[in-house]
Design goal:
Elements (H helix, E strand, L loop, with lengths): L7 E5 L6 H12 L1 E5 L18 H6 L2 E2 L12 H17 L3 E6 L2 H9 L9 H26 L1 H4 L7 H14 L3 H6 L10 E6 L3 H18 L1 H10 L15 H8 L5 H26 L4 E3 L11 H16 L1
Parallel strand pairs: 1-4, 1-5, 2-3, 2-4, 5-6
Length: 320
């Protein structure tokens, strides 16, 4: 089959909505390979805290792009798009169906709609941008950016160190502001036929599942992961991995700044807020072909054969 005409399945939804279990079930039926589309599950340091698939799950069907980057790496949308395109091409070449699975909507949009072709940033400029952040703090860096590139600065929060550093390094490396780059014509996205499935469980059941999962992560080794991250001296202050949900709170606990109960409470709260933002984004930006509004953690609702699978089979037969 022409790689540009091979069908792709996208399974998206907020965190803890049941994407992984459904993705595996679909992959087993259609000879699919699951390709990670979650910005935090690409990091190998946080298997528990990011709810990456277990070893048993990864043995059931092929999985790609899970735990492929070190925590010190700067995993951007552009980095992921390059990795995803390669994984998709290899999956198709192996005669399998690519199943993109995750909740990072910006990554999915960049893959299919294209993105600004910002040149690679030289290592020395990236290092200088991080040094400026360390010396001046996020507020100082925001003030400097507001003077040099007010259009970009107006769209960034003064405390968002990761995006501020990115904007500063792009400006220094290219002489153009990040906002200007983003307004330029985008590189072409994938043109493959795509079916988009969106998991949108009831809010109460989703939030309850988030809370249960966070508590389970503590029991499964999340504190040990946080302790290992805290012990690393090579992680940049703006390392994206530092924003993994639950990690900042657990590190605060390990430093003796808050109790474990408070770390769990705030971690659960922040994760629920994130799920709400994801739900809003997908509602307005995703255009799904099928919306699954049931709580798939309840066995009586996990009816793949009767509802979801026939829809996918019809799509694959038509696309092929």
């Amino acid at each position: 089959m022409d790689p540009l005409k091979a069908p792709i399945i996208v399974l998206a939804g907020p965190t803890a909505s049941g994407k992984s279990a459904l993705g595996i079930a679909i992959a087993e039926k259609v000879q699919g390979t699951i390709i990670n589309a979650d910005s935090m599950q690409v990091y190998r340091d946080l298997r528990v805290l990011t709810a990456r698939p277990t070893d048993d799950e990864m043995l059931r069907v092929p999985h790609r792009l899970y735990g492929v980057l070190d925590g010190a790496a700067h995993g951007t949308a552009a980095v992921w798009v390059d990795l995803a395109k390669q994984a998709i091409a290899e999956t198709i070449a192996n005669g399998r169906v690519p199943i993109l699975l995750g909740g990072t909507g910006m990554y999915l949009r960049s893959l299919f709609d294209g993105m600004a072709e910002i040149p690679p940033i030289p290592v020395e400029i990236r290092a200088a941008a991080r040094s400026k952040l360390n010396e001046e703090g996020a507020t100082g860096l925001h003030a400097a950016l507001a003077t040099a590139d007010p259009e970009t600065a107006a769209n960034l929060k003064p405390g968002d160190s990761q995006r501020l550093v990115r904007a500063w390094e792009v400006l220094q490396a290219t002489g153009r502001g990040l906002a200007d780059w983003q307004q330029a014509p985008a590189s072409p996205g994938l043109s493959n036929p795509v079916v988009r499935l969106l998991l949108q469980p009831p809010r109460d059941s989703l939030y309850a599942r988030i809370d249960r999962r966070f508590t389970g992560m503590i029991e499964a080794g999340a504190l040990e992961e946080a302790r290992a991250v805290l012990a690393r001296t090579d992680l940049p202050a703006d390392a994206p991995m530092r924003k993994a949900h639950g990690l900042p709170e657990l590190i605060q606990y390990l430093k003796g700044e808050i109790s474990l109960d408070e770390a769990i409470r705030v971690g659960q709260l922040n994760t629920r807020h994130y799920a709400k933002r994801q739900t809003t984004w997908f509602r307005h930006q995703f255009s799904p072909d099928l919306v699954v509004e049931k709580d798939l953690s309840q066995q009586e609702n996990f009816n793949l054969e009767a509802e979801i699978f026939p829809f996918i089979v019809r799509y694959l037969l038509t696309a092929r």
